[in-house]
Write a structure and sequence with these properties.
Rossmann fold, globular, 7 strands, 6 helices, two-stranded antiparallel sheet, alpha/beta, five-stranded parallel β-sheet
């Protein structure tokens, strides 16, 4: 199995999403599995500009696309910053959401071209955004589901630790719940 592991948490040692994504990879991978790791903070993908968007060939985008197409499983460490994903992860998405490569426009609407891949999303959140009034402010998990689904990655499982900045007890409860969810992965 080929696993593409992406991390985008800014706080390298304290990052909840990094911790969870590492645990997921450890849980689902075996000796024979190939893991490609891309740290989008330490080795950022430059933000998209007009020249890059219109270029006939973008070697970096091709590398990112090759990694994505080769993967059977994608593990994404994605914290919520200001109600959405880090810009480093958005820059990666801007390179892999590519018309004619990862999706096509059809008469029936857009069609994702990546099929049969499993995605694990390691989601870290300081507050609680999965329910209640704050759910309307979730532009992190909802955005990732939409963007990934647009290119055909619809088998997305979210491992979430939220409320980690609400005090020590809520933090420990959130981490324990995420650890338990990871332990249940096949």
């Amino acid at each position: 199995m080929n696993i593409l592991h992406l991390d985008s948490g800014l706080f390298l040692e304290q990052s909840v999403s990094r911790k969870l994504s590492q645990q997921i990879v450890k849980r689902i991978s075996g000796e024979q599995d190939q893991v490609v790791y891309r740290d989008l903070v330490n080795s950022p993908v430059p933000h998209l500009d007009a020249e890059t968007l219109l270029a006939e060939h973008d070697p970096l985008a091709q590398t990112l696309l090759d990694e994505l197409f080769a993967a059977d499983v994608v593990v994404i460490g994605a914290p919520m910053y200001n109600f959405t994903i880090p810009t480093q992860l958005k820059a990666w998405l801007d390179r892999v959401l590519k018309a004619g490569v990862t999706f096509n426009y059809t008469e029936q609407g857009p069609k994702g071209l990546l099929q049969g891949k499993k995605v694990y999303l390691a989601s870290g959140r300081g507050g609680i955004y999965s329910k209640g009034e704050a759910a309307a402010m979730d532009h992190q998990e909802s955005y990732l589901r939409q963007a990934l689904g647009f290119i055909g990655l619809t088998d997305v499982q979210i491992i979430r630790a939220e409320g980690v900045n609400l005090g020590e007890q809520p933090r420990q409860q959130a981490l324990a719940a995420a650890d338990e969810a990871i332990a249940q992965l096949a």
